[in-house]
Design brief:
Blueprint (H helix, E strand, L loop, with lengths): L2 H14 L7 E3 L14 E5 L13 H11 L3 E5 L4 H13 L5 E2 L8 H10 L7 E5 L2 H10 L4 E5 L1 H5 L5 H12 L8
Parallel strand pairs: 1-6, 2-3, 2-5, 3-4, 5-6
Length: 183
């Protein structure tokens, strides 16, 4: 995680309530499918977005990503540890998944994300982000100028953990003020 940009995102969340960060609030990634024709690139946060149980890239997730890859470029963004990223990379190979795994620890650095998108020749407006964290996923994509930001809420509905990280996630969710959002 990029602590400086995370601090900016938290301040912005407190100041704006996340207004305009979310294009559509959805329970699962499939709910956004009717909106995807306008996008060339789909970005996914891995854990808690693709599968609400946080188990990472299993065979089912890779099958889903391969279906998206038939019509879009698919990129996975994560802030996990290097060890966890190696596990994700191994699973991408094991399940022959047609998705790219971008370096860990960069979210929510939207300047880095925008630079990478432009280096690939993609227009930010042709990119869509799926994420569960307002400050890490949605703010980053919003500030990078992505055409859509899909807030996947399945994690909050299923997660009852008492860990500090999960408490922070729940706090972020409560701060969002978008009229489309009902966590």
């Amino acid at each position: 995680m990029n602590l400086i940009y995370y601090t900016f995102s938290v301040i912005d969340l407190c100041r704006t309530g996340g207004e305009n960060w979310v294009t559509k609030s959805i329970e699962t990634h499939e709910e956004a499918n009717p909106l995807l024709k306008d996008f060339k690139v789909l970005f996914f946060d891995i854990d808690d977005t693709l599968n609400a149980h946080g188990l990472g890239l299993d065979e089912s997730c890779c099958e889903t990503l391969n279906n998206y890859a038939k019509s879009h470029f698919v990129v996975l963004l994560t802030n996990c540890s290097q060890k966890r990223a190696q596990e994700h990379g191994a699973n991408l190979m094991r399940y022959q998944c047609n998705a790219e795994l971008w370096p860990v620890g960069r979210k929510p650095n939207y300047k880095w994300l925008l630079t990478r998108v432009l280096e690939r020749g993609w227009e930010p407006r042709q990119c869509a982000m799926y994420g569960d964290r307002p400050t890490m996923d949605l703010w980053c994509a919003y500030r990078a100028g992505f055409g859509a930001r899909f807030w996947v809420q399945a994690w909050a509905r299923k997660n009852k953990s008492k860990s500090m990280m999960d408490a922070i996630k729940r706090w972020e969710w409560r701060q969002m003020q978008s009229p489309q959002v009902n966590p």
